[in-house]
Amino acid sequence: MVSKLVEKLKDKFHPNRISFSGLVVSGFSVGLMFNPDTAPYGFGLLSTSYLTDGLDGWAARSWNRRTKIGAKLDPLMDKVKFLIVAGTAATMEVSKGNYLFPTGFLANAVVDGISQKQRGDLVTQIEEAYNGVVYPEKCEMDNEIHSATRANVFGKVKTGIQTAA
Fold this sequence. Notes:
0% strand
């Protein structure tokens, strides 16, 4: 009975859903950071949103829930989180008359867009991501040892640098 419950929980908290939860949490964190009273909570949530990036990979490997869509979803979620967080910061800087950070942000966004486009059509990726989050049980398993679509060490380091900046 316990093993059935554990399997149900693994499906409810599927790694694809964990990836998406990081995106939702980062959106809430940015909202909290606009108010000085809630900014520390926002920063804590932002940190948590980036911890989900490691948690989803661990869960996928440990629970044998690695999917081909999940391999595309992970870097896509990283890029969208970057757009939310850094885009908000860049917009605020432009409103203050500072154009250096926004210029760097735009350069990063272009590089991220090009790197994500190499994984295929962006609209198709968004559709696949939606299906991978809503219907993870229908996803094709990813049994490849080295996948061209899976997030690599370079991508994770790049995301970490972008987050720290």
